[in-house]
């Protein structure tokens, strides 16, 4: 500490012992008495407004930020001997690095630009270890680690920074205030009209068809329909062949057209809204779509902001405005924005307005804005706290006036309107592989038909003239006599036969499967949303399905990556303990009102919405009459908590009730705690702060503010007291703060040691900690800081780095005051959920920004870590150190490298490389295992890996990923501490890119967005940190405990249903096609059909589709209570029991058998009869429909009334359609069903087909369930027989694990 003076000490020694004369006591709220004789501009002798002077003034800031040794050479020409003068208002500037930056009339705020970098070196700042602030990059790290372009990594999904452009002075955007013509004449900026619709009346049909035909299946069926239009290939009627494709295209087009009509309606409503725009010297209404960049706009209370505007003035005299950004980032709490004092006092109506803004090009980063403004001859910087964005609403403010800088498509809201990355179901990718096998099978069948036709024509070549169809020329007398008939020669006839067979067998590739899967997923989502067990009554939030493509992936999750704060914990902070002047407080807590009465302090003037428990001993210390060092430190401690923050106090009524609005729950908890101890923040304006200290108001002028950022990990505020004393109050993370506190005396060293000990104790019980420090600023230090700050805050390049270096001028040699400990309680049911997930074979990794001790403590309390676990800690400070730690851990516990086992595993799996069973090296069941070796430590229990973010910087950006992967997958639990948001995404990508295992990421804040989007499945928590995570997620819910039900119940059901749905659709279409194939082989390979065209078309669209959808939505193999009670049942998804390549081929063999039975039994039954081919075709049609429905009925696990109606109703619908079709005289099958249905052989043949076709399947199911039952089958039998508990075989238990 440079001066040694304390906050409560008076400059006059004679009054230092009197508490009443100290600087924090109440004074009149007018301007304090002070020496106003001189200005406090840049105090360097060579101060100048030229860039060269600025560069000279900043020239000696060459060392890394935060190094106190770099400050000694700063501006040696500053006169230290001159009389001390304190600046007047508007002569000091405030540094803004956060996303709710406050900019005071005496301060200038600044923002930095963003560089896209790799996983390791990029961080997103969090306000006081809590919420996302602004996007920041460690310059030191990015300079040290250059491995950003390695090809082995995926960088395409790197959070919200995509598309952000660096602000270059040579490429700025110039906005002329109230002069839109001059603004737009050169640059042609975007207008304010927005268009979210895709189509117009003219472009709808071609554009929609173009988009739809991106699906290969649609192109396939379009080609089939086109082939059927050719006369030689007209197997079906030309109209009938188009029906399936036209039906699908029409339904999709109607849906897309309706959605786009709604977008058009919304666009018209939005663009035709009106706002007050300054035209001449008066404000007049103007439609939003006509507003241009450069125009001055006035917004009234509760109105929506039409475009991105820089604030010029507000109804508040200090330039303060409140906005709600829910439409932009989902956060409901109010944000503060400020108009610069240079413009706030200007009257815009009735006066000429001119000025110029130099700002950055449009970008997607809603947390940053970098610009300078020239107004009335003054030039000053603008930051994110001076801009209001399109879509926000004005709250608690009568009006604001601003100038438009970005309009229409260039606004940050529109630039961020892109949808989340689309995700594709893993089972659907496997389905495409099986579709390829069916395509090969289809090609073989068509080739057989074509070659058969060729051989038949060669064999009957001499008879072609006499055959009804194959004769070469007409022999009937008339105009066509001796003309060529429909015969094109053997080669072309063979080719046409091949193409015709493709048309006949077209439904072998199931186009209806795509529609069926969409309908089933919608139905599944409906029931998930309506699940009363996943409704959060506290927040009133239901479960949300934001993506309909990946429901079944929920049943195959192997890794869960979870945030801690707000996800595992409630993110509702409560002040629990404090270390003040080396003494621990918080052991005896009581409610504040009772303590105030016991201390004779009387009733509190201000009342918080919720009561805060306070420590009895600490409260007594604050009410001592003596001003000893301990009491002075306590006053400094709570004054820092009340002042050093960005919280806005809001008065709720006239009875003293007060509420605090802030973006960080940590800050709100600290301010509430200060109020409970008698230091109530009751007013914050753009230039001063008023704190009620035990009933008396203390006004502090804010001279500067350095927001919390991820590099410094601290926040500081420079305040001037009524007696002209200037002090910097600082709070921050212990890792940063303890390195900048003064330790030049034994007493300071002892204080630091005691505080560190308390910090360790707090962290060990899971409390979140911050360190509090302060420092008196001498005149020389103040002058140095102001000189550097004024130049740094107006810089358009590297502003953040320069501001960070400027902050290091005052954030050094601090006097340690104490530390805070905040409790963030675990959510209900978290330990039970994690334990159930572990039993289900799911690995849970926690990725948090908290310090290591806090994370470990939370890990123990939520049962992520257990007492029998051996812990591997990786805390490296260099690449070499990290490499050695990883290699030592692998050697100690016998971790084998993935690369070393790959060759053996490939050899082992070469015979069945397509099998979906977890047998290849990329699955976790074959991850590097624990192998005994000489000299290796014996592993007596499960292992847990703990690694910090600093180590991940070196590991993820260097060639150490494989080492980390081997060690991490070997351990049962991984806990990553102090990680940045993109490091979270890097950890997810580490597993996702190296394994076939499904990953799920769950979080609640904006810092979790990149992780959520990187994982196969992203889950957002509707928490306290806004809704960014929810908006970027695939599923959203209110509590972490719902994840247990989501995966173990709905995930299991959805996987089983969709897996069976796919296999059944393959079977249903294949049995129909192969039956036709047998008929063609018996009809001279002529591709004629015994079935009517409509029967072939309606088979998969109407006859058999409804039961498939109903079973896919409603069928349940097990009760939800059973699935929750026995989590190991979830392992069926890991083992791919419901869908794999072996099951596919078994199904195809069963299909082959059933098709043979379908074709030959009626053929033999009516061999000696006189029935025609259309009668047999009618029999085959109804038989195949009944057969596939009976096949489905054999596999239904839970019969409900809807299922009964769907299955048996489908058969009745088929009969009804056939009666209608057979009643139409123009059809060749006229009246056939009426003749067949009255004969007993017809019904006996159908029964015989069903029994013989399904008998092998029935017998195989019985044998397998009797001798090789699965876990699910055993549990199902136990449910039926009411056996509890279910005892699973030991061998199966091991496989489940």
Please explain how this structure is put together.
This protein is of the alpha+beta class and 1297 residues long. 41% of the residues lie in helices and 16% in strands. It is built from 41 helices and 40 strands. A nine-stranded mixed sheet has the order 18-40-39-38-19-34-37-36-35, sandwiched between helices. A nine-stranded antiparallel sheet has the order 21-20-33-32-31-30-29-28-27, sandwiched between helices. The chain has a six-stranded antiparallel sheet with strand order 7-6-8-17-9-15. The longest helix is centred in the last third of the chain and has 40 residues, at 1042-1081. It is elongated, with a radius of gyration of 38 Å. 50% of the residues are buried. Mean pLDDT is 77; it is low at 1-169, 594-603, 899-936 and 1290-1297.
Q: How do the strands of the widest beta sheet line up side by side?
A: 18-40-39-38-19-34-37-36-35
End-to-end Cα distance, whole Å, is: 58 Å
Radius of gyration: 38 Å
Number of strands: 40
Mean pLDDT: 77
Silhouette: elongated
Count, helices = 41
**SS content category:** alpha+beta
Note the beta-strand portion: 15-25%
Helical content stands at: 40-55%
Instruction: Pick out the low-confidence regions.
Output: 1-169, 594-603, 899-936, 1290-1297
**Biggest beta-sheet profile:** 9 strands, mixed
């Amino acid at each position: 500490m440079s001066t040694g003076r304390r906050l409560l000490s008076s400059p006059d020694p004679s009054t230092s012992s009197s508490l009443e004369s100290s600087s924090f006591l109440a004074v009149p709220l007018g301007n304090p008495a002070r020496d106003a004789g001189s200005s406090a501009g840049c105090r360097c002798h060579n101060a100048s407004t030229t860039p060269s002077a600025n560069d000279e003034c900043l020239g000696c800031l060459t060392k890394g930020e935060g190094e106190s040794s770099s400050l000694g050479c700063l501006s040696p020409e500053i006169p230290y001997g001159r009389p001390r003068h304190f600046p007047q208002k508007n002569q000091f500037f405030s540094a803004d690095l956060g996303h709710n930056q406050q900019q005071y009339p005496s301060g200038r705020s600044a923002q930095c630009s963003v560089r896209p970098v790799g996983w390791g070196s990029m961080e997103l700042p969090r306000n006081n270890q809590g919420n996302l602030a602004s996007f920041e990059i460690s310059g030191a790290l990015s300079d040290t680690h250059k491995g950003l372009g390695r090809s082995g990594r995926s960088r395409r999904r790197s959070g919200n920074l995509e598309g952000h452009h660096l602000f270059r002075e040579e490429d700025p955007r110039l906005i002329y205030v109230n002069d839109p013509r001059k603004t737009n004449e050169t640059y042609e900026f975007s207008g304010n009209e927005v268009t979210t619709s895709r189509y117009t009346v003219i472009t709808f049909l071609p554009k929609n068809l173009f988009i739809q035909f991106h699906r290969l299946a649609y192109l396939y069926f379009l080609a089939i329909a086109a082939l059927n239009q050719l006369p030689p290939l007209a197997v079906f009627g030309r109209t009938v062949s188009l029906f399936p494709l036209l039906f699908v295209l029409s339904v999709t087009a109607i849906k897309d057209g309706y959605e786009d009509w709604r977008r058009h309606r919304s666009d018209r409503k939005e663009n035709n809204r009106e706002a007050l725009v300054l035209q001449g010297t008066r404000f007049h209404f103007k439609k939003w779509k006509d507003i241009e960049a450069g125009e001055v706009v006035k917004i009234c209370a509760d109105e929506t902001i039409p475009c991105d505007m820089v604030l010029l003035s507000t109804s508040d005299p200090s330039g303060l405005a409140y906005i709600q950004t829910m439409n932009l980032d989902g956060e409901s709490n109010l944000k503060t924005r400020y108009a610069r004092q240079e413009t706030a006092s200007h009257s815009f109506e009735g006066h000429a307005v001119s000025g110029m803004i130099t700002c950055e090009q449009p970008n997607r980063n809603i947390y940053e804005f970098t610009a300078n403004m020239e107004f009335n001859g003054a030039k000053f910087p603008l930051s994110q706290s001076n801009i209001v964005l399109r879509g926000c609403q004005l709250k608690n403010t009568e009006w604001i006036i601003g100038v438009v800088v970005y309009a229409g498509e260039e606004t940050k809201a529109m630039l961020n309107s892109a949808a989340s990355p689309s995700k594709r179901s893993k089972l659907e990718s496997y389905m495409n592989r099986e579709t390829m096998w069916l395509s090969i099978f289809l090609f073989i069948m068509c080739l057989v038909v074509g070659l058969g036709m060729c051989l038949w024509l060669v064999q009957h070549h001499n008879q072609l003239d006499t055959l009804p169809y194959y004769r070469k020329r007409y022999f009937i007398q008339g105009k066509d006599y001796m003309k060529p008939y429909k015969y094109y020669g053997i080669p072309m006839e063979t080719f046409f036969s091949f193409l015709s067979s493709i048309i006949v067998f077209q439904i072998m590739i199931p186009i209806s499967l795509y529609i069926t899967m969409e309908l089933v997923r919608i139905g599944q989502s409906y029931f998930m949303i309506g699940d009363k067990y996943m409704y959060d009554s506290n927040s009133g939030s239901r479960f949300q399905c934001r993506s309909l493509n990946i429901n079944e992936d929920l049943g195959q999750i192997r890794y869960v990556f979870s945030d801690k704060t707000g996800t595992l914990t409630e993110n509702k902070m409560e002040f629990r303990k404090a270390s003040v002047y080396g003494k621990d407080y918080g052991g005896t807590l009581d409610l504040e009102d009772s303590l105030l009465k016991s201390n004779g302090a009387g009733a509190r003037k201000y009342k918080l919405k919720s009561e805060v428990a306070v420590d009895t001993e600490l409260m007594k210390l604050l009410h001592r009459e003596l001003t000893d060092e301990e009491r002075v430190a306590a006053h400094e401690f709570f004054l820092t908590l009340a002042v050093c923050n960005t919280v806005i106090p809001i008065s709720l009524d006239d009875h003293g009730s007060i509420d605090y609005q802030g973006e960080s729950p940590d800050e709100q908890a600290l301010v509430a705690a200060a109020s409970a101890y008698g230091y109530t923040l009751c007013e914050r304006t753009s230039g001063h702060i008023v704190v009620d200290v035990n009933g008396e108001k203390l006004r502090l002028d804010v001279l500067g503010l350095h927001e919390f950022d991820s590099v410094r990990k601290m926040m500081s505020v420079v305040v001037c007291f009524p007696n002209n004393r200037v002090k910097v109050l600082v709070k921050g993370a212990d890792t940063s703060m303890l390195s900048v506190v003064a330790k030049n005396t034994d007493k300071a060293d002892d204080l630091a040691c005691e505080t560190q000990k308390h910090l360790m104790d707090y962290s060990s019980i899971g409390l979140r900690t911050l360190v509090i420090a302060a420092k008196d600023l001498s005149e020389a230090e103040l002058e140095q800081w102001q000189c550097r700050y004024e130049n740094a805050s107006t810089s358009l390049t590297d502003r953040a780095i320069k501001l960070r270096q400027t902050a290091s001028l005052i954030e050094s040699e601090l006097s340690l005051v104490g530390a805070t400990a905040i409790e963030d309680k675990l959510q209900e049911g978290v330990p039970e959920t994690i334990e159930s997930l572990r039993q289900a074979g799911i690995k849970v990794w926690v990725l948090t920004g908290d310090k290591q001790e806090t994370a470990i403590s939370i890990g123990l309390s939520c049962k992520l870590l257990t007492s029998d676990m051996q812990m591997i800690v990786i805390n490296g400070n260099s690449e070499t150190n990290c490499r050695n730690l990883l290699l030592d851990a692998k050697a100690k516990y016998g971790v084998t490298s993935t690369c070393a086992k790959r060759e053996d595993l490939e050899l082992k799996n070469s015979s069945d490389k397509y099998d979906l069973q977890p047998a290849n090296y990329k699955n976790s069941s074959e991850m590097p295992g624990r192998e005994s070796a000489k000299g290796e430590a014996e592993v007596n229990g499960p292992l847990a890996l703990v690694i910090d973010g600093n180590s991940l910087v070196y590991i993820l950006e260097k060639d150490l990923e494989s080492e980390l992967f081997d060690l991490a997958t070997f351990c049962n639990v991984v806990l990553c501490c102090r990680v940045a948001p993109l490091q979270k995404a890097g950890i997810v990508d580490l597993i996702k890119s190296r394994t076939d295992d499904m990953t799920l990421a769950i979080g609640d804040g904006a810092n979790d967005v990149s992780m959520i989007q990187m994982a196969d499945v992203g889950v957002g928590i509707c928490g306290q940190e806004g809704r960014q995570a929810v908006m970027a997620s695939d599923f959203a819910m209110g509590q972490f405990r719902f994840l247990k039900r989501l995966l173990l119940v709905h995930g299991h059901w959805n996987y089983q249903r969709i897996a069976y749905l796919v296999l059944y659709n393959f079977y249903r279409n294949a049995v129909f096609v192969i039956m036709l194939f047998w008929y063609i082989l018996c009809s001279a390979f002529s591709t004629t059909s015994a079935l009517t065209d409509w029967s072939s078309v309606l088979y998969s669209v109407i006859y058999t589709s409804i039961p498939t959808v109903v079973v896919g939505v409603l069928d349940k193999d097990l009760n939800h209570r059973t699935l929750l009670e026995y989590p190991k049942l979830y392992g069926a998804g890991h083992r791919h029991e419901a869908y794999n390549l072996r099951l596919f081929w078994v199904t195809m063999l069963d299909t082959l058998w059933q098709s043979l039975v379908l074709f030959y039994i009626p053929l033999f039954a009516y061999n000696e009869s006189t029935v025609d081919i259309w009668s047999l075709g009618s029999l085959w049609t109804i038989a195949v429909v009944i057969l596939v429905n009976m096949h489905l009925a054999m596999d239904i696990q839970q019969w409900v009334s809807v299922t009964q109606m769907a299955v048996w109703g489908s058969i009745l619908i088929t009969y009804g359609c056939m009666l209608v079709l057979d009643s139409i005289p123009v059809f060749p099958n006229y009246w056939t069903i009426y003749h067949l249905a009255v004969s007993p052989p017809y019904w006996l043949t159908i029964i015989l087909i069903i029994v013989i076709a399904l008998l092998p399947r029935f017998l195989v199911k019985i044998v397998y369930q009797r001798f090789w039952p699965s876990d699910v089958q055993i549990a199902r039998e136990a449910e039926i027989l009411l056996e509890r508990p279910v005892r699973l075989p030991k061998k199966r238990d091991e496989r489940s694990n």
